[in-house]
Amino acid sequence: MVEPETFTFLADLAMNNRKAWMDANRDARDDAMRNFTGIATTLYDYADRFDPFVAEAGIKPKQSYTKFFQEPRDRVGRDLYRAGVDVFANAGHPSEDFGYYLHIEPGNCYAGAALFQPSKEPLARLRQRLVDDPDGLKDILVDPEFKAAFPDGLVTRKALGTMPDGFESSDPAAPYLKMVGLGCRQDLPDALLLDDEVIDLLIDIFRAASQLVRYFD
């Protein structure tokens, strides 16, 4: 699944997050990108086992992972490049629609379903869905299969300190309305992702997450 050289490249990138270093290591970068394309292809090839809508979407694998360069609005800290990459399996657009993903980063790999970095309009739709049907979300979060796969429930990569404009702190979905994008995740050891057989585990993870994807459709 993930090639050892890909982990090596990402680890080296984390320690040398500069344009000069990236330019000097283009071959390793291109090899990693080919690996990500291959992983995305595999996820789509097996999508009929966890989500028929993804299987029928016909998304191009080369468009199904985050790029290394970080746009200024998405940048975390001072790093110019991402040292962790998300490979997606979506029926729509990864930055616009909720879907499945595999996060590849040395020492911090995980998989699940999410919309972690939505632009303004998708974020507004996500929040409105939470307000419209808080009970539907609650049913998912207490489902035994979902809880077993994702014991941390819903997580985010960025949370607001206060409620967003237009929403009330008394809303049943208030904790999630503060999340600027959200999802579920199951942590994975790096070594496990080196084995092609990990696809069976990813299918199980995505199947458990599928009801959350359907909720946000």
Structural write-up:
This protein has 217 residues and is of the alpha+beta class. Helices cover 44% and strands 12% of the residues. It is built from ten helices and four strands. It has helices at 4-15, 19-24, 26-45, 52-55, 120-132, 134-141, 144-149, 174-177, 190-193, 198-215; strands spanning 85-89, 99-104, 109-115, 182-188. The chain has a four-stranded antiparallel β-sheet with strand order 1-2-3-4. The radius of gyration is 17 Å and the shape is globular. The two termini are 29 Å apart. 31% of the residues are buried. The mean pLDDT is 93.
Secondary structure elements and pairings:
Blueprint: H1 4-15, H2 19-24, H3 26-45, H4 52-55, E1 85-89, E2 99-104, E3 109-115, H5 120-132, H6 134-141, H7 144-149, H8 174-177, E4 182-188, H9 190-193, H10 198-215
Antiparallel strand pairs: 1-2, 2-3, 3-4
Main sheet strand line-up = 1-2-3-4
What percent of the residues sit in helical stretches (DSSP H or I)?
40-55%
| Radius of gyration based on Cα positions | 17 Å
> Taking all residues together, what is the mean pLDDT?
93
Class computed from helices, strands and strand pairing: alpha+beta
Number of strands: 4
* Poorly predicted sequence stretches spanning 5 or more consecutive residues: none
Largest β sheet strand count, sense and barrel closure = 4 strands, antiparallel
End-to-end gap: 29 Å
Strand content: 5-15%
Total of DSSP H or I helical runs spanning 4+ residues: 10
User: What general outline do the C-alpha atoms trace?
Assistant: globular
Order of helices and strands: HHHHEEEHHHHEHH
